[in-house]
Amino acid sequence: MRVPGMNAATLDLLPRAEADGAPLLRLSGVGKRFANGVTALEGLDMAVREGEFVSLLGPSGCGKSTALRLIAGLTEPSEGRLDWDEDETARRGRERHSIGFVFQDPTLMPWASVFGNVHLPLKLAGVGRREAEPAIMEALELVGLAAFRDAYPRELSGGMKMRVSIARALVTKPRLLLMDEPFAALDEITRFKLNNDLLDVWRRLRCTIVFVTHSVFESVYLSSRILVFRARPGRVSAELVIDPNQPRDETFRTSPEYAGLCRETSLALARAMDAP
Amino acid sequence: MRVPGMNAATLDLLPRAEADGAPLLRLSGVGKRFANGVTALEGLDMAVREGEFVSLLGPSGCGKSTALRLIAGLTEPSEGRLDWDEDETARRGRERHSIGFVFQDPTLMPWASVFGNVHLPLKLAGVGRREAEPAIMEALELVGLAAFRDAYPRELSGGMKMRVSIARALVTKPRLLLMDEPFAALDEITRFKLNNDLLDVWRRLRCTIVFVTHSVFESVYLSSRILVFRARPGRVSAELVIDPNQPRDETFRTSPEYAGLCRETSLALARAMDAP
Amino acid sequence: PTAPARAADKVTFGTNWVAQAEHGGFYQAFADGTYAKYGLNVTILPGGPQANNRLLLPVGKIDFYMGGNMLQAISSVVEEIPTQVVAAMFQKDPQVLIAHPDVTAFEQLKTRTLFISKEGLASYYQWLVDAYGFSEDQVKPYTFNAAPFLVDKNSAMQGYITSEPYAVEQQGGFKPTLFLLADYGFQTYATTIETRNELVKQNPDLVQRFVDASIIGWYNYLYGDNAKANALIKQDNPEITDAMIAFTIARMKEYGIVDSGDTASLGIGAMTDARMKGFYDTMVKAKVLEPGIDIAKSYTLQFVNKGVGKELAPK
Amino acid sequence: MSTSPLRWLLPFGVLAALILAWAAVVKLNNLPPYVLPAPGKVLETLIEDRAVLFASMLVTLKTTVIALLLAVAGGAALALLFASARIVEFSLFPIAVILQVTPVIAVAPLMLIYLSTDAAVLVCAWIVAFFPVLSNTTLGLKSVDPNLRDLFRLSGATRWQTLAQLKLPTALPYFLGGLRIAGGLALIGAVVGEIAAGSAGQGSGLAFRIVESAYRLNIPRLFAALLLISLTGILIYAGLSLLSWLVLRRWHESELGGRA
Amino acid sequence: MSTSPLRWLLPFGVLAALILAWAAVVKLNNLPPYVLPAPGKVLETLIEDRAVLFASMLVTLKTTVIALLLAVAGGAALALLFASARIVEFSLFPIAVILQVTPVIAVAPLMLIYLSTDAAVLVCAWIVAFFPVLSNTTLGLKSVDPNLRDLFRLSGATRWQTLAQLKLPTALPYFLGGLRIAGGLALIGAVVGEIAAGSAGQGSGLAFRIVESAYRLNIPRLFAALLLISLTGILIYAGLSLLSWLVLRRWHESELGGRA
Ligand SMILES: Nc1ncnc2c1ncn2[C@@H]1O[C@H](COP(=O)(O)OP(=O)(O)OP(=O)(O)O)[C@@H](O)[C@H]1O
Ligand SMILES: Nc1ncnc2c1ncn2[C@@H]1O[C@H](COP(=O)(O)OP(=O)(O)OP(=O)(O)O)[C@@H](O)[C@H]1O
Ligand SMILES: [Mg+2]
Ligand SMILES: [Mg+2]
């Protein structure tokens, strides 16, 4: 079934109305200043709703990774606040692995094999090697590295390392996935395949994804919402909403709506680059 | 002046006729097997001609980085041979910095500032800090990091680190530039700008560039020739030639020829993926 | 005496160096059953290269300790350590200065490099400075190894008359000139038996038995059949050879280390107030010891000078 | 690791050259054995007195190995304690330093008051050997990749898991480096401990043989004992290096050598 | 580095607690001063004999500092030599190990034959201290990031440049770790050297004070000397840690602490 139903809107600098449910988390007036005086973020307002696929787009060095780290709780805001949905906080207390994180660098343990690296989050949750094996192999299968299960990180190419990192984030089937340019080091075909696989995972697990990318095409193809950051100090300068029910496949990729959305996003990005 | 004059050809698996000058270097029947038994390359035949802009395209893990390392002399082929032009070998004896290399990872010295990192190749050639400063600042200007000259690598974002690495490769104005996915971590606008800057450098310096990328668009926009590698064990599975005199600008990017070439390249890549 | 009916008293005797013939009398008393006869079950605890056993006496880990010379005993008084000397097995301190054969007079040593241990420097050497005008500048450290002395022809070194000269003769191939400090006025007793004040007060009988048996041991070691004692020494210290033992015994006899002077009348182990006082005054003058120390606390004549075992000496 | 035989022969060649030079020095200067015995004479003595010397070596080796094991346990345990919080490190490191710099020779007599001779020797050797393990392991535990630390935090790793699965592997190359230093130090510690607190006479270690030989001017025997100590030291070092190689060869630069 | 005053007070608090515990042990067990003197008594002695003791401390400190400098120079130089080729390392490391495990006490007399007393003490202290610097620096020099090594190769860096600008900075944290170990060892080395080969009498170091006090059973004074050694050790360690922090704080994990 093909539905043209696409519901895109550019609401520059305006947070979207929250008719469709309370947000999972909300950043209000968040600023981040580093010890060396660099202000990475300033006045960042954004929310992530349950089950959303949000992409963050913006110029290099604008604070996307920092925003992701803030959401993950890996760093504290210097200003403003970050609020989690109460249910979520409660659930977080019970479950581990609520968050999967793909760092911008592969961040693999050099002393462990590919298998061991992907096993890590399960191992930390007390799942033994034997028990975890099906899940690990499934994740490795997904990123096409099943044959390299016993290789060590230093024996892998750049793209392969990144894929191990992706497998590691997926293996726990987390409820919130934070991904920092996961596919940047991959060729287009692998990338397309993984794009579709990721969408599949998203739909199956009904998880929430916050996704940093530099590819306008990718962001449009994947997301239900795109946040465009302006240059340092970063904050949201534009927001685009895409109907999540729109099926994502080759036909979408070649549709004029897709092209239009891409152009729109590119424009928002260009405007964000030289925002005052 | 717009010239449609484009001279594209898909010469699957066939090395291109060498009418236009002796190659700067030639790899013949090159194979590379690693200690752990992985065969990264097998029967790789390719040549790089003086003043060319060659892009290498191919699936993740197919041996592109390995090929670049072979050319740079950082690793030895397990099979086959690599021949340099005799003049070039002679010149190499006289000049340092004949090669600039952008690694797939930023590969910065953590103990040196951005300035110090970019200074490195000049310093190794005996050019002092004072003397090298204009060149360093020019390179930093180019990648948009002049304001970060005194920052340390750990204080930079992923894209910024990569840009430092690019500045370092350019600062010596090398005669041969080997670049391994230099722009993968950059947003599209910065990437476009740097694409143009790189072309500018290429034309001004009349240097030779071997460029690994995963972006079909980028490869078509930049190169005078594209080599598509097939999956591991890697070797050239397709070659596309693009008229180097074609001006590269927004009009080219939106031209149907460009779109056609991209499609052709994508197809070659898709075919390379499932080559036997 | 009739054998005592009660079980033998367990006592531990700590020496200040590894087993050697200088400890012969004690091993003799052990080997030939003299200690047993006196109702003592003795354990001999050999010392190490460092004088470790010393502190074990006041804390009660050992009951008798073989003291070096009287200096340390007097130091104990200063430091209020409740121990005292109950017998002196050596009438003369075997401390000797060993010189190359070209040295003939004691005075000549003043121009030589002297290898002296740190302990020596803190004790008798100060007396040499005071009494003979030696100087600290001529001292190099002695590390219980004679090689530096043998190599430096213009040097002399400290030693025990019963030990080092043997090695020097063997390795150097010459007979060194020996200056026994005792013969030059260093009149301390040596190889004493020290024990805790408390033991003297509470169990004088035990102390007396140990002293008497040890004295008899020494007579027998010097003048009787010492084969069993020597075997025991060799067992405790496999490095030692018969030749060394013979050398030591000969030197002890030759220089009257154990049996000379007062022992003729008072027997081995003899001590006198006069000699103690004379020694103390010399040391005070040499600034080795401070004036005003109550040296009477450092020893007691209660257990010696009784002529025990004198009958064992050759007439 | 290259398997070229040169690799294994050269060290022996160098040692042989050294021994030849030693022999030449003795010969040319006509040195008497009590100053520097010729290597041949030392070997002769070694063979002659093998029974006594090897027995002593075993005693010393035993002390060394136990001390090293305790140093590893103690040093690593302290390092873990220190790694738990910066404030703990700051508070307790001075005490570790005091332990390290306390001259064993000076305190050995005091230890003998409360400890048996064997225990005192062990404590001496331990004191000398534990610090490099502690110091290097602490350094290693602090050199964790910050991104990996974040990953562990995110995965809800417990303190204990972070320690066992992140900090310890990171610290491993440092720890093994400390271990290689500690190996030799445990040996010297055992020897010094024996000198300072050891029993003498029968059944005692190499230190006693050395002191006694020196006292008797039996210098060839002293050298034979030194030779055994050197051999023991080299064996320990080689063993620890092998261990290090086995553990790190798959991933750490220091044992990978240059990449082809 | 946090600037909270707690950070600076706690170590002193712990030390104070330790001293109080020591005083309590002495008091409760009614220990006589010749077994374990009370801290007050030690302090009293320290103040009383300050002239002699501080003079001796300066002598020992001087030896320590010179030995440490030489150990740094020697250890680092050897490490550089070893880093030049695997085969050199393999051939010469056994000799370094032999040096490390040679009991200084045993060879001191030999040194005294050919060296002046002061030189012999220095050599002793050096032998004890150089190995950690050597071992850690070697490890550091081998832990170079392979990509950076490639970069240097490509840039046509000379051997010397690669050493100075790549290997040395990489080895710096390891070297500084070795230095912190060597600092304490140089101090013990100086003390042991003084005991083994040092001059005695006036103008001599703390070791002589210790031996002398032990001989005279003046245990409070022995402890005062030990206290000075401990203080010196802590000062050296603190100084080297500060140096390490100054050098590494901008880039190495071990001195960065957790990131905010
Ligand atoms: N630890 C740090 N100390 C100081 N400054 C930092 C630190 N980390 C990041 N920054 C600065 O914060 C800014 C934002 O960094 P961030 O990594 O969030 O950018 P980004 O949007 O992810 O960029 P990129 O797309 O290049 O990865 C940068 O200017 C960077 O210099
Ligand atoms: N040091 C090594 N040891 C063993 N195998 C290696 C080593 N380096 C690379 N390989 C293998 O060689 C193959 C090619 O690696 P290479 O890095 O050249 O790929 P690539 O084409 O650059 O891939 P990517 O696009 O992901 O960077 C990979 O399969 C990898 O596993
Ligand atoms: Mg980023
Ligand atoms: Mg690559």
Automatic annotation (TrEMBL), chains A, B:
Enumerate the spans annotated as ABC transporter domain.
25-256
What residue ranges are annotated as transmembrane?
none
Q: Which organism is it from?
A: Ancylobacter aquaticus
Annotated protein name in UniProt:
NitT/TauT family transport system ATP-binding protein
User: Which Gene3D superfamilies does the annotation name?
Assistant: P-loop containing nucleotide triphosphate hydrolases (3.40.50.300)
Name the source's superkingdom.
Answer: Bacteria
Family to which this protein belongs: Belongs to the ABC transporter superfamily.
Arranged from A to Z, the UniProt key words for this protein are:
ATP-binding, Nucleotide-binding, Transport
Example GO molecular function term?
ATP binding
Presence of the UniProt keyword Transport in the record:
yes
What does the organism's lineage look like at the top?
Bacteria, Pseudomonadati, Pseudomonadota, Alphaproteobacteria, Hyphomicrobiales
TrEMBL record, chains D, E:
- SUPFAM superfamilies referenced in this protein's UniProt entry, alphabetically: MetI-like
Asked whether the keyword Acetylation is assigned, the reply is no
Q: Which InterPro entries match?
A: MetI-like, MetI-like_sf
Q: Keywords for this entry?
A: Cell membrane, Membrane, Transmembrane, Transmembrane helix, Transport
Compartments where found: Cell membrane
Q: Primary place of residence?
A: membrane
ABC transmembrane type-1 domain spans which residues? 53-244
Does the record's keyword annotation contain DNA repair? no
Q: How does it sit in the membrane?
A: Multi-pass membrane protein
> What range does the record give for the signal peptide?
none
GO BP terms, alphabetized: transmembrane transport
Annotated Gene Ontology cellular component terms? plasma membrane
Q: Which domain of life is it from?
A: Bacteria
Membrane-crossing ranges are 65-85, 92-114, 120-141, 222-248
Per the record, the similarity remark reads: Belongs to the binding-protein-dependent transport system permease family.
The protein's name: NitT/TauT family transport system permease protein
Source species: Ancylobacter aquaticus
